[in-house]
Amino acid sequence: MSVRYVMQRDTRGWRTQVRVSFGLALLCTAFGVWNLPAKELDRAFLAMGMFFCLFATLAVSKMVRDNRDGQVDTGGWTATVWSGFAAAMALTAWGLFRMEVQDWQKFYVVVSWLYLVSSAFVLAKTLRDDQEATLLERRMAAQAREGGASSSATTPAVTDAATPTPQPRARS
Fold first, then answer.
1. What is the C-alpha R_g of the chain?
2. C-beta atoms surrounding 120 within 10 Å
3. What is the pTM of this model?
4. Rounded Cα gap, residues 7 and 96, in angstroms
5. Angle at 28 between CA 96 and CA 32, to 5 degrees
6. What's phi and psi for 9, nearest 5 deg?
7. What is the Cα–Cα distance from 142 to 139, expressed in whole angstroms?
8. 131: number of CA atoms within 13 Å, CB side?
9. What are the pLDDT digits (tens) for 130-164?
10. DSSP label at 38?
11. For residue 1, what are the CA distances in angstroms to 96, 120, 155, 157, 170?
């Protein structure tokens, strides 16, 4: 049997909020690292760690989403992505907590760092959802132009998030 997906478009307000949140997280993190009263080498290490975490977060997001319907990546790639994410988080935490700064300054950087990571996950998901909805709409438009509308069991449905449908996300 085929799988039917109901793709909901996120509202413009949600997409705006996600982008603003990510930008704010990036700004807060940069502000914290820039103004941290530590040695320049320590701040440089911390900045590289933050970028490492950001890009590792985006890699994990993509790998998880690519493999949601079945394994498409090799086991080696999956292990590399997850170990890169774990290394980024662990090494950045180690670098931050070994710095000789006051606790409140460390906690500010930790909170902004976790805000950056979580908002990067949400941004990646929102962008991927939008891309998939656009691809489904194009496929449906092409089928309509060709006059070859397929059966309702295999036709994807695209809806606006403001008008949710009671259909399940996927079924077999």
1. 21
2. 21
3. 0.75
4. 41
5. 40
6. -80, 135
7. 5
8. 9
9. 998 888 889 888 888 888 555 444 555 555 555 44
10. S
11. 51, 35, 13, 17, 12
CA-closest candidate to residue 99, choices 56, 47, 57: 47
Find out whether 18 and 169 touch, Cβ atoms under 8 Å.
no
Q: Is the pLDDT score of 17 beyond 50?
A: yes
Q: At residue 35, what is the residue type?
A: N
19: tokens are 């982008």
Rounded CA-CA distance 108/38 in Å is 14
Structure-token match 């399940």, residue found: 168
Q: Which of 66, 61, 113, 111 is nearest to 82 (CA)?
A: 61
Nearest alpha-carbon partner for 47 in 90, 81, 96, 98: 96
Tokens of 12: 């413009």
Contact (CB, 8 A) for 109 and 46: yes
